[in-house]
Amino acid sequence: MDSTNRWRTIDIVVASVLAVAFGIIFWAWGLLWNGPADAIPLPGRAVLYGVWLVPAVLGALVVRKPGAALFTLTLAALVSVALGTSWGWTIVVQGPLEAAAAELAFALFAYRNYRLPVALLAATLAGLAAAIYDVFVWYPGTAWGSFRLPYILLTAASSLVVAGLGSVALTRSLANTGVLDRFPAGRERAAV
Q1: Gap between the Cα atoms of 155 and 89, Å rounded
Q2: What is the pLDDT of residues 41-91, one digit of tens each?
Q3: Which of 1, 53, 17, 20 is CA-nearest to residue 183?
Q4: Among positive and negative, which fits the CA dihedral 121, 15, 51, 166?
Q5: What's the distance, CA 1 to chain centroid?
Q6: How far apart are the C-alpha atoms of 34 and 152, rounded to whole Å?
Q7: What angle do CA 101, 133, 57 make, to 5 degrees?
Q8: What letter does residue 2 receive in the DSSP assignment?
């Protein structure tokens, strides 16, 4: 393994902090999804989905090591399960599946490209994985034309915007504060 791909202690700590923070956000987002947002009928509510995929893209953009997307989103999912998500232990399976889809985008570019198009691809792939999981696990009796395809497309679009563009914006904002100076994202502020 290339020494630049080895995880440092700071990589683990920062990815873990991001994951725990987003695990708490996931728990709260679940309350919103099943509470006030419940007024938006499915599949339309899928426009809110992208928040659940941010840690995969953000973790990879900050840490920039193989496995960062998988580690960050998987740990965030586990934290949300520990806090009592309404979806229970199914998230233990779904989180890593979504994360693996995001990880695939960075792997396709040999973990050397962390620019906007790759972040958008990672977010979109994670959204597609999430939506496909959902339509088979949670909505198996729904019609493809009126529910499943719109749900998949809205989830992918939400992921592209929220997890993709949002993670790039968060990375830039964090880099501009100087907290990422020990990471390539901090040293390449304009390139993120």
Answers
A1: 21
A2: 899 999 999 999 999 999 999 999 999 999 999 999 999 999 998 888 889
A3: 17
A4: negative
A5: 26
A6: 19
A7: 30
A8: -
